[in-house]
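In the previous chapter we treated chains in isolation. Here, by contrast, the input contains two separate entities that must be folded as one system, with a combined length of 573 residues.
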Amino acid sequence: MTFQFLSPKPHSYTDKVDADGDIDMLLKTERENFETKVVTPGELVTHATQYMGGHGTYTNETNERLSSVAGVVDRVNKLISIRPLHTRYTGEIGDLVIGRITEVSQRRWKVDINSRQDAVLLLSAINLPGGVQRRKTEADELQMRKFFSEGDLLVAEVQGTFQDGSFSLHTRILKYGKLRNGSFVIVPPALVQRCKTHFHTLPCGVNLTLGLNGYIWVSKHTTQTVEEFAIYSNENEEIDQENREAIARVCNSISALSRHFMCINDKTIVLAYEASLNFPVKDLLKLDVMVIITNEVNEKMTSLKAGMRR
Amino acid sequence: MAGDRRRIQGPEVTVAPIIIKSSDKEKIQLKDVSGQRRDGRNLEDIRPIFLKTGLISQANGSAYIELRRTKIACGVYGPRQTKIPSFSGKGNLNCEIKFTPFSCLKRRQPYRDAQEKELSQLVFEALAPSIRLDLLPKSTIDIYISVLENDGMASCLAAAITCASVAVADAGIEMLDQVAACSASYIDGDIYMDSDLVEEQRESGSLVLSYMPSLNEVTHILQSGEVEVSLTTQAIEQCTDTCSKIYSVMNHSLLESVKNRIQ
């Protein structure tokens, strides 16, 4: 009897490869069951038991996988999760967020970052004015309100997570810290994507900080870095009429984008800003003007994408 | 007479209250010979539902429901940090129902009264089993329901539960299933589904059923008045059927709002 050894063949289902070169392990027919599927709470996602359940799913007694939120089905190989579109921010370590101080307590601040629980910023996780490197003493503890007091806005990074779903933050990079000279916009967190940088300078001469929690800071452009002694200053600098208008225009463009649920990054904001130049700033909040602007952004984005494909 | 001040000083003789039977109420025919009600629907039909999510922009989730003259708006805030620092492994659910002063036939006082408290508790009991509060330690979900127009208390409660459940789902809060609720009135041995105010004034009892259709579980039953068992079972069956119909409306409005956003 003769045996014949066949050389290993790749499976027939390895036709889908994503940007990272990862191969999708599902058969094409199975895959189609999940693509752009929208579910509501209690709806059956799949009968098959081979899948792992991620966020937004649960199993019933008969081991069927049901959805527990309203949103779109996200599948990474065998892991199925449901992504709600309108929800609170759930952070990950390393995320850049913008927050507002809600409470000053023992050696820590409580920060509202649009998540389920207020985040914690420890006294030991901030930079001292002047960039002094030392342990925080009791004297620092007594003058915590000199660094951040209630209502202050700050930009920080997520340092870690706690079991109850809250986060701890840190501001130990000079770019982070107290925010001033600008204006604050809130958008749904789902619209802001993770990027290499979240600090942008727009061509219109405006600085932009995109927090992943959907909080956005639009401020006056400054070339020189803040003197290390002034990082906790509460004083706003003089902003001239032209800059004020540019800041307001960018803010209103962002709210137009968020109202039409379009993704928000420096590119779309610049496009929206350019499209808005035909209108006076205060008209940008009118519904019909918002439609015109977002349509124009949409067209430009699709033409840009088409250009890239070629 | 210097009597005991702690005792209630009532009058010495009691007089039975005079009950005025309004004659015009009796005149209204609730159903005609063919079994149709005043507004043209059958006994087992409910009023047409309008349901839309996302009306309150500053809330995390919101919904508006309208069944002809019953109009209710609901906003959901949270999950957010519980303000009173007491540790709880489960999340808190806080429901508040509010009748606007102009919502009822008689003007209502703007402050919270006993009936609003009772209804708030009922909404809480109907919704709490459906929401996965075990996933939200130390957090609070606030549900604020305002009744803009009230056309029958039982149907108003049912609509409030339905509306609140959709608003919670709109807020992206994890839940086992949506809760659909529906009311029925017992009038002269008949079951009137989703009765309005005029019908409610003639009822001998009522039923409000809250039901999770895709799990096939009842979260809450509220029955009042004197009814026979057979009639109650029939009403419960009719209510579960109707809840499944309401559920499809709830699903439709939620899917609409999600699809609008992803297109």
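Chain A has a mean pLDDT of 84. The first strand of chain A starts at residue 38 and ends at 39. Compare these points with the single-chain example from earlier in the chapter.
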